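A note on notation is needed here, since sequence and fold are reported together in a single record. The reader may check this reading against the record printed directly beneath this paragraph.
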Amino acid sequence: MAATASVFHRAALLPRTITAVVGGAVLLLAAWAGGTWWIGVAVLLAGLASTEYVRLQPNLAGPMRVIVVLAAAAAVLVAVLLGNANMFFVVLGAIVVALGVAPWLAARMDPYRFVPGPFAAAALGIAYLGLPHGVLARWRLERPFADLAWMFVIVWAGDIAAYFVGLTFGRHKMAPKVSPGKSWEGAVAGLIAGALAGMLAAAAFGVPAISGLLLGVVISIAAQIGDLFESAMKRSAGVKDSGGLLPGHGGVLDRFDAVLFAAPVAYAALNVLGR
C-alpha cells in the first residue's frame, strides 16, 4: 500500500510542479503589472473558485449557485471601489468565522457533522471567496508588488516544505478525518519554512526581522487552517478534488485554499503593524 502511494506521488509530482511554476509565474506577473490586470485576475479567480465551491455544497442549488458565483466576483469589485475597505473586510471576515470556521471547530473538525443550510452556505461562500480576493485586489492598489509577492512566497514555502517533509517523514496524522495525508511533521516543517521566509521578507514588508518571522508563522498557520477547511468541504461532499482545471492539483480551490485564509490575515497583520 505504501509503495503504491509512493508511486502515485512520484507520478503526480511532474504535472503538479509544472502547474505550480507556470501558474505562480502568471500570478506574480499579473500582480507586478497591477491595475486592471490584477483586478481582472482577482475577479476571475473568485468566479472560478466559487463555481467549485457551490458544487461542494449539497444544499445549494439552482439560482442560489448563480448568486454565489456572481456575488463573490462582485465583492472583489466592491473592495476595489471602496475608499476605505477595512469595515468591508471585517464584515466578510466575521461571516466566515461565524458561519464556517466556528461551527466546523465546534464539530471537532469532523467534515460530516457540519453541513450548512442553503442560506448559510450561500453567505459563507460569498464571504469565503469575496473576502480574500477582495483583499488581494485591494492590497496591490495600496502597497508595492514586493509586499504581495512575499506573502505568496511565505505560503508557497510552507506548502512545499509541508508536502515533502510530510511525504518523507510523516508518521503522526494531523487530522485523519479531514485530510489523511497531512501529518504533524509536515505541519511543523511548513511553519518553520514560513517563519524563515517571513524573516527574509521583513525588509520588503518594512518591519523588523523578528516581526517578519512572527508574521511568517501567523501566515503559515492561517494557510494550514485554510487548507484543512477546504479539505473538510471536499470530504463532506465526497470528492477528492474541488475541480479538474489545474493538472496535478485539481481545482482552483485546491491550489488557492491556503491563500484564501492567509491573505486576509497577512493584510490585517500588516495594518496592525502600521505598514
